[in-house]
Amino acid sequence: LQDEETRKDYDYMLDHPEEYYRHYYHYYSRRLAPKVDVRIVILVTVCAISVFQFFSWWSSYNEAINYLATVPKYRIQATEIARQQGLLNKTKEKGKNRRSKEEIREEEEEIIKDIIKNKIDIKGGYQKPKIYDILLFQILLAPFYLCKYIAWYCWWIYCFTIKGQEYGVEEKLYIIRRYMKMSQSQFDSLEDHQKETFLERQLWIRENYEVYKREQEEELKKKMAMDPRWKRYRRWMKNEGPGRLTFIDD
C-alpha cells in the first residue's frame, strides 16, 4: 500500500470481495505497468530517428559529391580552379617529407571534391544536410512554422485576393509548384531553363497548366510507344501475361 491509488483499491476490495476478477485486473495492471515514463521513450525515439536522418543525409550528400567528381564536366572545371588557386602546383617534397604518388593523388582528389562542394549548389534529395531539417528540430520549431504559415497566408489573401495585386515571379513559381504537386526540394532540383519555360507558358494560370499537362501526357505516351522495352512488355502482356492459361500436350 505505497500510494493513494493502491490504498483505494485495497479498501474497495475489502468492501466488495465478490468482485475478484476486478481485483485481479487492477493488481496485475499495476504490477505489469511500464516503469519508464512514456515521454522519455518518445524523446529517445525521436532523437534516434533524428540521428539516423542526419547521418543518412550526409551519406547521400557525400555520394553525390563523389559522383560529380567523376563527371568530366565538373572535374575539369574543379581541376582548373584548383590550378588557378595554386592548390595543385605545390613544389614536391624532398627527403623525409617526400610523399608517395598515392598520397599525392588522394590529396588532389580531396581538393577537387572540396572545390565541387563549394562551387556547386546541390539541390533536391542530395543537398547538403541541415540540422534544422531533422525530425527533432522540426517538432521543436513546429509552432514557429505554423505561425509563419498563418502570417504568410493572411498576407497572400490580403495582397492577391483583396487588393488584387499581380503575382511576382516567386508567387507564380509557387502556384506552378502547387499545381504540379511537387515538394520544394523537388521543384528546386529542376533546371533553370525548365522554370523559365513554365513562366513563358504562364502555367500559373490553371487553363494553361491543364493544356501543358495534357501535352506532357501525350508526349509520355509517344515515348513509351516507341520504347523497345515497353513494346516487349506489351507483347508479353498480350501473349504470356499473368492470368493466361495454356494447355501443353504431353
How would you describe what is shown here?
The chain is an all-alpha fold and 250 residues long. The chain has 4 domains: 1-33, no CATH class; 39-89 and 101-127, no CATH class; 130-165; 166-240, no CATH class. Helix content is 69%, strand content 0%. The protein is built from 12 helices and no strands. The protein has helices spanning 4-15, 20-31, 38-68, 72-84, 101-119, 135-140, 142-162, 169-180, 184-188, 192-200, 206-226, 228-239. It is extended. Mean pLDDT is 79; it is low at 242-250.
Question: Topology of this structure?
Answer:
Elements: H1 4-15, H2 20-31, H3 38-68, H4 72-84, H5 101-119, H6 135-140, H7 142-162, H8 169-180, H9 184-188, H10 192-200, H11 206-226, H12 228-239
**Overall number of strands:** 0
What is the residue-mean pLDDT, rounded to a whole number? 79
| Poorly predicted tracts of residues | 242-250
Number of domains: 4
Oligomer: single chain
Work out the helicity level: 55-70%
Instruction: Name the overall outline.
Output: extended
Class from secondary-structure proportions = mainly alpha
